[in-house]
Amino acid sequence: MPRATLMNLYGLSEASGACVITPWDATREDLMSTIGRTIGDAEVQVVDPVDLRPLPVGHVGELCFRGCGVVPGYVGAARTSDAFLPGGWLRSGDLGEVDARGVITLKGRAKDMYIQGGFNVYPAEVEAFIARHPDVMTVAGIGVPDPVLGEVGRYYVIRKPGSELTEAALRTWCAEGLADYKVPRQIVFRDELPLTPAGKIHKAALRADAVST
Predict the structure, then answer these.
(1) Strands 104-109 and 43-47
(2) Would you give the distance in Å from CA 179 to the centre of its chain?
(3) What confidence tens digit (pLDDT) does each residue in 76-85 have?
(4) Nearest to 122 by CA among 105, 99, 135
(5) Mean pLDDT of the chain, nearest integer
(6) Ordered domains of the chain (ranges, CATH)
(7) Sheet with 37-38, side-by-side order of all strands
(8) Model pTM?
């Protein structure tokens, strides 16, 4: 399909579907590393995940959206949740940053971030790098408790058939392209990973596995 234009699309059910898309004229770098800009009258705001204060351009925080497609709130038992901020902002639960152009880079789920030795680590970034290794088929990372650093990264990896990739070799690969605090302290090879009914990696099951081992 030589004339096809690839675009990233991001959205939530509470935002009536898509609220962010890659522009038609996006560069290859933006296409591969960002999710694009908000659509129509949709707006995005980045807030601190803890105190919920708005953050300036270029800072990583929780992505919040508002606009005509965003629902004003929940009904029933969920109406008392903290999913909405004053001004009609919907908390997405996703971490990201917005640059001066309004282009959004997704960093992963807020609940997936872990703090290793005082540094925030976003597993999605590390997973993307590990997935580029020619012997890696699938990877999923979580933070696990550590007596010295508070938390460290544990990454579950499925090797490609026939691969003899070792933990040491994969860690060396990561050290060549990631900051030291992002390099996995623990690597666990598996033949398969738990999946949700929707086919996504079940990270809650991985966290339970980490507690039991």
Answers:
(1) unpaired
(2) 18
(3) 877 777 889 9
(4) 105
(5) 92
(6) 9-110 (2.30.38.10), 113-212 (3.30.300.30)
(7) 9-12, 17-21, 37-38
(8) 0.77
